Amino acid sequence: MSNSESHLILVTKSQSGVLRIAINRPEKKNALTIEMYAALAQSIRQGEADTSVRVFLLHGTEDCFSSGNDLKDFLESPPKDESSPVFQFIQAISQAEKPIVAAVNGPAVGIGTTMLLHCDLVYAGSNARFMMPFVNLGLNPEAASSLLLPRLAGYQRAAEVLLLGELFSAEKAREIGLVNSVLPDAEVLEFASAQANKLAAKPFASVLLTKALLKKEDKAAIQRIISEEFQYIIERLGSPEAVEAFNAFFERRKPDFSQFN
């Protein structure tokens, strides 16, 4: 087994060719920092280049997938252009040619949910909870979720989760097509790992070709929308609504948007 140096993103490779990427910051509910985004992007790109890697397996800790951005870290070093680590991670996961299996326990918030749109097989624990709170923060959707979610779930259901930005259950995630199956929490990672091993044992060229064909029609549109959404996010971070939302978060109060048109 080979291991990464970072203790926040743990990377191990099995003899069967499964590259396991674990988000490992449980004391902060696996909130993602710039350093972690960079490590995630590097892990995926190195896995893509490594001919012994056949499948990615992405997961968090026992009771949390990811609570999304570490907002303090995010605001101290906001993304300014497409060289930012968060954009590089979204690019890496959305462009991966090898299949990605995800195991989700507990909260999956913000990018913790949108990254799943770029995974090929997603399995969730019964207590998993999903949320895309971009509007609540005065921002806009990311990672091509404004394109992919309506195609996956239908317009009304996508509008409900993106416009209201409320928590939704693992069962609802399965209903709208975001996850393949809902399992008892204790069984999720083992089941996802078994599925990854099944994929790793199949004819590799056929797996790659099948994924490429499945993604071919939307490939250019996804990259275009990722860039467009990202530019809007950079602009929105300086908006009065976003400033109020973030201030309210850190001051632990309810935001007041009534003063803005």
From TrEMBL:
Gene Ontology terms for molecular function: delta(3)-delta(2)-enoyl-CoA isomerase activity
Keywords, in A-Z order: Isomerase, Peroxisome
Origin: domain of life: Bacteria
Record flagged with keyword Isomerase: yes
Subcellular location: Peroxisome
Primary location: other
Name of the protein in question: Enoyl-CoA hydratase
Organism: Desulforhabdus amnigena
